[in-house]
Design goal:
Two copies of one chain form a homodimer. Chain A has 17 helices and 26 strands. In chain A, 33% of the residues lie in helices and 23% in strands. An eight-stranded mixed sheet of chain A has the order 7-6-5-8-3-2-9-10. In chain A, strands 11, 12, 13, 14, 15 and 16 form a six-stranded mixed sheet that branches. With 671 residues, chain A is an alpha+beta fold. Chain A folds into four domains: 202 residues, Heat Shock Protein 90 (2-Layer Sandwich); 63 residues; 149 residues, 2-Layer Sandwich (Ribosomal Protein S5, domain 2); 159 residues, Immunoglobulin-like (Sandwich).
Chain lengths: 671, 671
C-alpha cells in the first residue's frame, strides 16, 4: 500500500461533524456525564434561562421546579416560570438547536451566553430516553399558549417538531419545559437542592419552589421585592481586543467614518481621543472603516491600546453587593453562627480581553465551622453557583496560591486550600465569563481575573488576620491581667505579714505592671437590641490623650447615633473618630452608640482602632493602621512632645521611643 | 413595556451562532487562554495530527517543530512531518474548518478525534495576528506539493483560501504547517519541551526535533524502530449504549435484517446471541432495522444489555506496555535514579458507554525525588501527555481518593495528593476518551474509569508498600544486629574480667538473640554488569529447610542463567524458586544469577520471598505471600512436624507457634 493510496483512504473518511453529533458523543463536556450530574445540569440550564428571561422583562422571577419518578432510572423534570414567554416561531430553535440564542452577541452580564444549555438538556433526554421535550409558552398579548413536542435531528443540529397544539394555560405569560431523562435524584453535595439554595443566596429577588420526587416541597422565599438593576448592554472595550477582532469590527461596521466607528462601536473612546488615536496611527478620521488594511489595523490597535481611554462602565454588570453577600452568607450558614464576618469586598470593574468584569469576596470564620477540614469555598459566576470542577477553577487556584499562614489559617506548605473553620464566597461577574467548558462549571485561568480575585481575597484575609491577632492578643493580655490581679495581692499580704507592716495599696503597682489601655466593646447582640458602648480605661502609669476610631459597614453606620458625637468621619468608608478627654492613670471614659430598629450590626462588624499609644499597650483594639490618611490631632502630638521635654513620666527610654514612633507615620505590614 | 413586546424584542435578538464564532469568543475552552498556553496547544495539535497520520500510513514518524521569534510578542511555529500527505481537495477543510475530520466517526484509539484542534490553532493565529496559516502538503504519487495560505471565515466556519500554488518540495511525502501567532516561549512546566519529552516517553517509535527560538536544537531520538500495532477499527459495543444511540444505529443501518444489524453493526454480538436477544425482545430476526419502533427499541436495548456478550476486543487500543512504561520513566527521571520501580500495571480492556478503554500505571519511589512535596503525576491519554487541568482530571481524583497512608505515603487527612518522593504515571487509552473540554487536558469523572485507575493504582501501591515495609524491617533488624554485635562482646569481656574467667565464645549466644535468617542480594548495578547473587545465612539457633522465591520482570528473567538451576518456575509471572539444602545454625548458602548483555535489570526489580520461616525472623526478604498458589515442598512440612514432635529445639512456645503458622495458608493483608 503506497502513501498516496493511504492519503486517498484518509481523505475518503474526512467528514463534517455536526455540533449536535459532537456534543452527543462528548456529553460530559456539557455536564451530562452521569445521571446525577445530568439532572443538576438540566435543572440549572432551565432555571438560569428562566431567571434571565424574567429579569430582562423586568418581572420578579417566580420559578417552579418539579422532579418526579418515571420508571426505574428515569426522572421527569419540569421547570415553569413567569417570564415573558417565547414567540411561537422561536420556540423550536431556542429549545432544540445547539448554538442558537439571544445573549451570545450582547455585551451584558447574563447567566446564559452560549445558546447551548437548554438544547443540550433536550439532546440528552432524547439520547437516553428517546422522548421529546414538551414546551408550553405564552406571551401576554396572545390568548392561547403554544404547546410543542420537540426533539433534535442530531445529524443536522436542527429542531424536529414531533407535535404541536395551541392550548389554554391559566397564566398571563410564562414558559414551561418538561423532559424525561435518565437521571438520579440526590440531596446534599452537587444536588439540585444545593444549586437552588446557592441560587437563592445570590438572587434574593427570586422565589423558587422545588418539588422533590417524594413529594416534598421546598420553597426559597423572596428576600427582597426589588429587582437588581438590569445590566446595560455595553460595547467592546479596546483594552484587550485582539487584532482579528478589530478587523472583524472594522469590516462589519456600518459607520461612515473611522472616527464614528471608534466612538460608537467601541466603549471608552471619546471623539477627542478617537481623533488623537487616528492621528497617531496615521489614518484619516473620515476614512471608511472597511478601507483600513492589515498593517494600518495593527497601527490602529496599538494606538488604541496605548491611549488613555475611559474605564469601562460597570453598569453592564450586576454585582451582588456587600449587604446581600453578608445576608446570603448568614442565610446559608444558619445554625453555624460564625464568630467573625469579614466586611465583604467588592472590587471595582476591570477589563480583560475587551470585556468588563468584577470580583466580590465574602469571608466568615469560626463558630460551628469545622476546624480540621479545608475551608469551604462557595463559587459564583454571574449569580450562578458553580458546583463542579472546583479543582479546575481560577477561583480555587487563586485561593490556593495565597499563603494563608500569613493571615492566620493553617496551610500545608503554604499553598493549596487552607485548613480551618472558614468559608469563602467568591463571585465573578462579567459580560463574558471565560468558562473552562460549555458546562460552565469552572472559570479558566486568567491573569487579570486571578489578580482581582487575589486582591479581593487579600482584602478579606487582612480583616481575618486583624480579627485573629486581636483575639489572641486579647486572650494573652487578659490572662496576664488575671494573673497579676490574683497573685500580686496575695504576695503583698504575705510579705506584709512577714515584715509586720500594713498591706499597701496595690493599684498603682498593678497599673505599672499592666501598662495597658483597655477598650471594651459592649454591643448588644441581635437579640438584646442594637445599643452598646465602648469603655476605655487607662491602666498605664501616665496620663493619655487618645483618639478612638470605629470602622464598620458604611450603610449601617450612617444610621447610628453616637454619644458623644464623633469629632470627624468618613461616612463613605464607614469611619468615625473621637479625641477622648485626657485620661489620667486608672481613668475611664465611655462612648455609646445606638442603631435604629431593623439595622443588622453586631460587635464583629466593628473594627476598633486607637491612636496615641502603641500596639503593645493596647487591649481590645488595634493601633491605627499606617495607611489611613487621618491627620493626628495636634493635641496628641503636643502631649507627646511635652512628655519628651519633661524627660518622660518615669517611663523607660524604650517606652518613650514607642510612643514617639506612634506619632510618626506608620507602614502597614500587609502588602 | 408589556411582556409581549419584551418577548418580541427578545425574539428579534435570537440568532444562530457559528461554531467558529463560539470558539473565537471562548478560546480558553480550546486551550488558547494566554500566549504561553496557546503556543503549547498549537504545537500539540500539530504534532498529534502528524503522529496519527504517520502511524495510520505505517510510517515511522519523523517530526520537526520549529519555533522562531516574529516581532515582540509573536512567534512563528512550523511543524513538518513525513506522513502520507493530504489530498489538495481536503487541505482547506482539514486546516480551516472546525468540526471536520476523519477520526470522529471511527471507533479506534487515536490522538485526534474531534476535528477541532488544528483548525482552532489557525483560528487563534488569525485572531491574534490576522495572518493566514501556510500549508505545504505532498502525497507520494504526485510530482509537486500544494502550497496554500488559509484563514477561517468566522461567521460561516468555512475555509478562506488566501493564496494557492504548486511547488517543488524535497520530500517524498509529508505535510508542513506554519502559523504566526501571539505566543510566548518558555521552558519548564507546561512548555512545548515538556510536552515533547512526554510524547517521546510514550511514543518511543517517533523521532522528534525541536528548534527553540534561540536556535537551540533538541532531538528526541527514536528508542525503537518498531511501530506499535495500528489499533483496529471496532464497532460500538452494546454495553453502555444509550437508547437514543441504538435508535440512530437502527435508523442508519443498511443491513437487510435485524439479526445482521446486531451482528455486523455492533461489537460482541454473535449470531446465536443475536437470535436469543431478538427472541427475548419479541422481535423477528428478519425484520428491517428501520422498522423497530420506540417501545421495541427499549425492549431490544434491555435484552442486549442483559445478554452475555463477548468482551470488546482490545486490538482497537494501543497500550504502552510495562516494558516501555518502565523504560520511559527511566528516561524521564534520568539523574534522579529512584530506589524503587514498582512493576508497571496494565489492566485488561473494559467498556464504558460502548467504548473500550484500558488503564496502565507506573510508580517509582525514592532516590532524588523530593521528599516533602506532593507526588508527581504524569498523565497520558491515548499516548498524549496531559499538562494542564491536573486538578480537574479523573486520574488525579482517583489518586487523591485513595488512602495512601495505608501504602506508606504521607497524606493529610487520608485524601488529596499524597506527599513523598514518588512519581506516578497513568495512561488511559480508549476509542473515545471523555475529556472535560475540547482542549483535551483532563479526563472527565466516570465511575468505570475511576474504578480501573484505582485498581491499577492499588496494584502498584501494594508493591510500594511491600518495598517500604521490607526497607523498614531491614533497617530495624540491621540496627538490632549491629547493637548486639557491638555490645555483647564488651559486656562479656568486662564480666569475664570481673569474675576472672576466660571470655566465652559468643557466636551461639548472638545467634540465639538475633534469631534471623538473612538474605543479601548482591546484584550488579547497571555499571558493573548483570551478575549477582543471593547470600542466605541462618542466624537462628536451629537447622532450617527454606524455600527461596525470586520474582521480577518476566521478559528479563526468562533470559537469566541461575546457579543452581531453579527447582520450579512460573516464567509468565516471572517467578522462580529453590528449596535450599538444610541450613545449620550459622550456616550459609548462595544462589547466583547472570543476565546476558543488553538486559536491564537491577536489584530493585527483584522481589525476594522465603518460605519455611516466619516474617519476624527474616531479614532482607519477605515471607511468601499467602495468595501465591505455590505448593510448599513436602520437606518443609516434614521438618516442621519433626521439630514439633521433638518438642522444638529449645525454642519458646511462641516461636514454635510462629513457625507452625508458617506452614499453614496465609491471608494477604492487602485487599
Amino acid at each position: 500500500m503506497t502513501s498516496s493510496t493511504i492519503a486517498q483512504q484518509l481523505a475518503s473518511k474526512q467528514r463534517e461533524i455536526s455540533v449536535a453529533e459532537f456534543f452527543e458523543r462528548n456529553r460530559q463536556i456539557l455536564g451530562f456525564d452521569n445521571p446525577q450530574r445530568a439532572l443538576l445540569t438540566t435543572v440549572k440550564e432551565a432555571v438560569d434561562n428562566s431567571l434571565d428571561a424574567a429579569e430582562e422583562a423586568g418581572i420578579l422571577p417566580e420559578i417552579e421546579v418539579e422532579i418526579a419518578k418515571d420508571g426505574t432510572d428515569r426522572l421527569r423534570v419540569a421547570v415553569t416560570d413567569n417570564g415573558p414567554g417565547i414567540l411561537r416561531r422561536e420556540i423550536p430553535n431556542v429549545f432544540a438547536r445547539l448554538l442558537y440564542g439571544s445573549r451570545f452577541h450582547a455585551h451584558r452580564q447574563a447567566r446564559g451566553q452560549q445558546g447551548i444549555g437548554i438544547s443540550a438538556a433536550v439532546l440528552y433526554a432524547g439520547l437516553t430516553t428517546a422522548r421529546p421535550a414538551k414546551i408550553i409558552s405564552k406571551v401576554a398579548e396572545e390568548e392561547g399558549a403554544h404547546l410543542l413536542e420537540l426533539s433534535i435531528d442530531i445529524q443536522k443540529n436542527a429542531p424536529r417538531i414531533v407535535s404541536e397544539d395551541v392550548t389554554l394555560w391559566d397564566r398571563a405569560h410564562g414558559t414551561r419545559i418538561e423532559m424525561i431523562l435518565k437521571a438520579r435524584y440526590i440531596r446534599g453535595r452537587q444536588s439540585p437542592l444545593e444549586y437552588l439554595r446557592g441560587t437563592a443566596i445570590v438572587n434574593p429577588h427570586a422565589r423558587i419552589v422545588l418539588t422533590e420526587p417524594d413529594g416534598t416541597r421546598i420553597t426559597f422565599e423572596r428576600a427582597t421585592e426589588t429587582l437588581p438593576p438590569l445590566p446595560r448592554e455595553t460595547l467592546p472595550h479596546p483594552y484587550g481586543l485582539e487584532l482579528g477582532e478589530l478587523g472583524s469590527l472594522l469590516r462589519g461596521s456600518r459607520r461612515p467614518s473611522l472616527v464614528e466607528m471608534l466612538t460608537k462601536d467601541l466603549g471608552g473612546v471619546s471623539p477627542r481621543v478617537a481623533r488623537e488615536v487616528l492621528a497617531g496611527a496615521g489614518l484619516a478620521a473620515s476614512a471608511a472603516p472597511g478601507s483600513v488594511d492589515g498593517p494600518a489595523q495593527e497601527r490602529l490597535l496599538s494606538a488604541l491600546q496605548s491611549a488613555s481611554l475611559l474605564a469601562p462602565s460597570s453598569d453592564c454588570l450586576s454585582p451582588i453587593g456587600p449587604l446581600l453577600i453578608k445576608r446570603g452568607l448568614r442565610n446559608v450558614l444558619g445554625e453555624v453562627r460564625p464568630e467573625f464576618f469579614a466586611p465583604p469586598v467588592s472590587r471595582p470593574a476591570k477589563v480583560r480581553g475587551g470585556f468588563p468584569f468584577l470580583v466580590e469576596v465574602g469571608l466568615v470564620y469560626g463558630g460551628g465551622l469545622p476546624v480540621d477540614q479545608p475551608v469551604q469555598v462557595l463559587r459564583f459566576a454571574n449569580r450562578v453557583p458553580l458546583l463542579f470542577q472546583q479543582g479546575a477553577c481560577a477561583i480555587t487556584n487563586a485561593i490556593g496560591s495565597m499563603d494563608w499562614r500569613r493571615y492566620g489559617l493553617d496551610q500545608k506548605g503554604g499553598s493549596g486550600l487552607p485548613t480551618g473553620p472558614a468559608l469563602i464566597l467568591v463571585h465573578v461577574a462579567s459580560t463574558k465569563v471565560p468558562f473552562t467548558s460549555e458546562a460552565k462549571e469552572a472559570i479558566a485561568e486568567d491573569p487579570d481575573i486571578d489578580r482581582e480575585v487575589t486582591l479581593a481575597l487579600q482584602g478579606a484575609a487582612r480583616h481575618l488576620k486583624a480579627h485573629l491577632s486581636r483575639k489572641s492578643r486579647r486572650a494573652f493580655a487578659s490572662e496576664k491581667f488575671a494573673i497579676i490581679q490574683r497573685i500580686l495581692p496575695k504576695l503583698a499580704e504575705k510579705t506584709s505579714g512577714l515584715v509586720g507592716r500594713p498591706v499597701p495599696d496595690l493599684t498603682p503597682v498593678i497599673t505599672r505592671i499592666m501598662d495597658v489601655v483597655t477598650v471594651e466593646p459592649v454591643l448588644g447582640t441581635e437579640k438584646t437590641g442594637r445599643t452598646g458602648s465602648l469603655e476605655i480605661t487607662n491602666y498605664t502609669p501616665r496620663p493619655r490623650i487618645l483618639e478612638v476610631f470605629v470602622e464598620g459597614p458604611p450603610e449601617e453606620l450612617r444610621t447610628a447615633a453616637f454619644e458623644p458625637a464623633p469629632e470627624g468621619s468618613d461616612a463613605d468608608l464607614g469611619r468615625y473618630w473621637w479625641t477622648l478627654p485626657k485620661l489620667m492613670p486608672n481613668g475611664r471614659t465611655r462612648l455609646s452608640l445606638r442603631f435604629p430598629a431593623g439595622i443588622e450590626v453586631d460587635a464583629n462588624d466593628l473594627d476598633l482602632y486607637v491612636a496615641g499609644i502603641d500596639e503593645g499597650h493596647l487591649l481590645g483594639a488595634d493601633a491605627l493602621p499606617g495607611d489611613w490618611e487621618v491627620r493626628l490631632p495636634r493635641a496628641i502630638v503636643e502631649a507627646a512632645e511635652a512628655a519628651e521635654a519633661q524627660g518622660g513620666v518615669k517611663e523607660s527610654e524604650e517606652e518613650v521611643d514607642y510612643d514617639a514612633e506612634e506619632t510618626s507615620a506608620r507602614v502597614a505590614d500587609d502588602e
